[in-house]
Amino acid sequence: MVDTEDINDPTRGERNQRLNAALFALGAVICSPKELNLEDAVKASCFLSFCYVEQKATRVLSANLLFRLWQRYPQVLHAEEAVEWCTFAFFYYPKLEYFRPEALQCLLRLMEMPTTPKQLPPSIVEYVSLDPLKPSVMEQLANALFRNEQVTQVHPMLHPVWKDLFDLMLKRCGAGESLQEHLTTFVHTVIVPYRRGSSDVPRRTLFQNLVMELGQIAVQSADHRERTQVLEMANKAAGYGKKISAKASTLAELKQLPVSALQEKVMDLISQYKSLKDSDLASHSNRKWILRELRNSLLVPVREGISCDYVNDAAFFFLRYGFFPPKSAGDQKMANHCIYLFAELFSFTLKGDLMRPKSTVNPREIMTLYLEKEEKGLTRYKTAVDHKKFKKARNLIVDALENSAKRSVLFYDKEDIEILLVLLFLMLSVDDASNADATLIATSVVPDLTHFFLNGSLDSLDMLYDIMMTIILRKTSPLHVLPLQSCIRRIAIGYMQKFAKFIRSEETVTILLAPLKEAFNTDSRELARLDRVKNGENEDSDSEEDDQDQRADPDEVADDESQGDSESSSDNDDDEDDESTSAGSEQSAEGGGL
């Protein structure tokens, strides 16, 4: 065991090094599974209290190691020496008008103990008898914790005392107390009084972390009504959400839930999203959190054969809030996010023993629902209503899907091609009519694709490849079309790979290689570079004129110099080759020089 009396080194640097080494070694001892006897545990407690007093830089570490020691060996707090050192370190040294955050951590742990240590001073015993979640006590705790020097000292870390407070709230709520009551107390006594006015970076960072933790607790409450009330309170009082959103649950956490719990969670999140209004201060960040949580919940893999009804419900929810949201949900960014989630969920068709659940929504049902909303004027975009080209292309898709029984034998597995046609239907409905690529898809690609869907064969594969390459190589598209375009492009690439083994004609290979040849054709770029260099040169220099003559056409050089010397020009005809022309030009140059 380390003896505190032996640490009396002449230099402060060496002393701090030994103190740090002893502190980390003691931390390893405390966290190891090997048990300590009571005497060693008491000495370790005294030494950690000494480290807390002696070294300011490691106070958070030394104090939390001490609390870990108390957690493993509760009998230490009944030893007189350990309690004296603890009292001196946390409450008496140095004399301040407030307690440090580690002292508040110590008080919280003493408050939770069933019996108070007898050696504590009467004033500390009085503090221990208080309830930390009571508004008046919480106000005093916040007054101590928001001291500038204490906030700056641990920046940008969130001090463990805040985690202890949140854990205490959750523990009380688990015992049956109201989460709304505790969070309301926390917001009105900790957040609201200290968030007003200008503040420095450490305090702003602390508020950001606190509000994030607060939102994490609020949005994961089991009671939907209580969660809604807490979020509404946080929106109005704490300003939760303008740029701060809670962290979504990780996939590892969600994998622990059974399918029934996932079903309940997804439906609860959907109802929570529907209850949000644009007038709420934190509507954007709350919607962002819900969509992230929904996406993670839908990514949880399940065994093949297990029915997951919540996937279809989520697909219709994304369809509605992406393409025809209600008036209370006018957030365009979140609507585009819903379009992306819908396209991702609806277009997933991979099969495996353990995969994310797939949507089983009928494609015709999606088109019917969209057309109904479009007739009522509820959709975000009305491209197909205002432009006949797009409407005609959509009608071709609807007719092709209605005659799906007569489709080409190449599409014996119709799942992917029907998804592709439905996504094209939605893209035509919301695309930009002034976009040349969108017009090309409406007037050329869709008619050819529907024709190939019904009458395609291996002999006409070049038509399919032409269609797919046009879709894949689309250059520009509006922001809300990009999610649909990415899924359409993925399916098109899949079909190109699928039918690659059937390529027999040179036309199909030419179609495939055309964009590659265009991409690697550097002649035009090299000529453009030479033109830029030529335009930027100084024409007064003789050397630059020589470079221009070398870059010019030999026939033009000969013509220019023949005007300066008629004798040399008469000896050279226009039909002579490059060598004779250049030779004549050299002779004329020499004659001019003489």
TrEMBL record:
<feature type="compositionally biased region" description="Low complexity">
    <location>
        <begin position="581"/>
        <end position="594"/>
    </location>
</feature>
<protein>
    <submittedName>
        <fullName>DNA polymerase phi, putative</fullName>
    </submittedName>
</protein>
<feature type="region of interest" description="Disordered">
    <location>
        <begin position="530"/>
        <end position="594"/>
    </location>
</feature>
<feature type="compositionally biased region" description="Acidic residues">
    <location>
        <begin position="555"/>
        <end position="580"/>
    </location>
</feature>
<feature type="compositionally biased region" description="Acidic residues">
    <location>
        <begin position="538"/>
        <end position="548"/>
    </location>
</feature>
